[in-house]
Amino acid sequence: MRPIETRYARSGDVRIAYQVVGQGSFDLVFVPGFISNLDLQWEDEGYSRLLKRLSAFSRLILFDKRGTGLSDRVDSRHLPSLETRMDDVRAVMDAAGSGRAAILGASEGAPMAMLFAATYPERTRSLVLYGGYANFHRWVMPPERLEAFIETAETAWGTGATLPNFAPGRIDDPHFSQWWARFERLSASPTAAAALARMNAGVDVRGILSTISAPTLLIHRRNDVRVDPEASRFLARKIPGARLVEIAGRDHPVWTGDVDRVADLIEEFLTGEPAVADTERVLAALLVTRIYDTAKLGDRMWSERSQRFQETWRLLVGRHGGRAAGTHGELMVSRFDGPGRAIRCAAALREAAQQIGVASAQGAHVGEIELRGQPVGLTARVTLQLASHAGRGDILASRLVADLTVGSGLHFTEAGRISLDELDEPLPVVHATSEQHLEPACRPKARPAEPATLTARESEVVNLIADGKSNAAIAAELSLSEHTVKRHVANILLKLDLPSRAAAAAFSARHTGPDGP
To answer: pTM, whole model, 2 decimals?
Structure first.
């Protein structure tokens, strides 16, 4: 994507940075929350996804509030009033040639948006408030919590230390945590952050709510960690004709969680038409594999085993018709066209991890993802959380995975339900179990070290097992009866002293080079 041009509007003696994207039939002004940075926001997958969705149906006007991002800083000894900051919206609209616009106020941007709508009704087409509030101390932080937050900002700003206050569900995401630390540093200095927090603490717009005449949509996450959902319920009662939609989730920023759900609600409210289905999204099965060291191997040995497993992971994912979609530390994400392939690959990876000497835990889920790029969005986050809930050696999958693999020969056991932040209801989950009916009744004690003990036909069979093929598919490809294939599989497991087909697949991957055996 080509860089977005950044321009400056003059608001009194202060210059406000702004950008304009999209060519929709109406203008939409986005008033951001606590901090922002016009350039950096395009680097986060969720943030850029939201902005692309909004600019697809509007002419989207973005800006950094005074004191943040690319805009001029404020004098911490003479903090501007909310009215002064609200007038920055008017200055940006004038500079962008916008006479009338829909206003989207997110979090701390909501009071500014409400005040603008009340002050300039002739310039407000409609109003959307996400995670908003009318009084800071009542619905965001009481004075004692605010002082603790300011102390953190002054002593640890730029390290990502404020992330638990805004998006605790993303703490274990190293990529997002690193981005958040940069977001702090490039959006405000420690002194500016403390000043902004004190400015926000003075917000109270309860007195003007009844004067807002613009059509208003309120969106709030039910378990919002930063702004009490009661804040939007209060707004819904006080703003004439306002409509409130509560959605699942705990993380507060508008660009986290189910971004598409938020964008769908805004698009339908502002255009009067349901959001058009995105043809760039496809249904896929995701598998997240994580490994960890339970034996305290030491840095060097752990690094060697981790690297060895990642190499095996790529081989096995390819063998099962999947695609390695990215890594985040010890987390490995892969995608498949069907859940059966994902589960068979997970079983092979579990056996491979045991052979290498590391502990594994895996999560699998089915849902829509972007056709291009790394999987992001709700499906990816649910799969990541399933992997985090999985125990050592477990393959934890959503119940949907089991439903879609009926008749495949895969076996699952019920594992109850898991409450996830972004889902309205607890998610039914299952454990994937071994294909016990294919395991040999007994094994010799000696373990052959190399695949040379296999016959040529058995080598063909084990390679097809590694490709994720069932006994019936192997029989058809080799022109054998299914009974004969089953006998070959049993012989292979006996000769190699392996516990299951999945272990045979892992064995094949370890003894196969990039150009074949």
So the answer is: 0.69
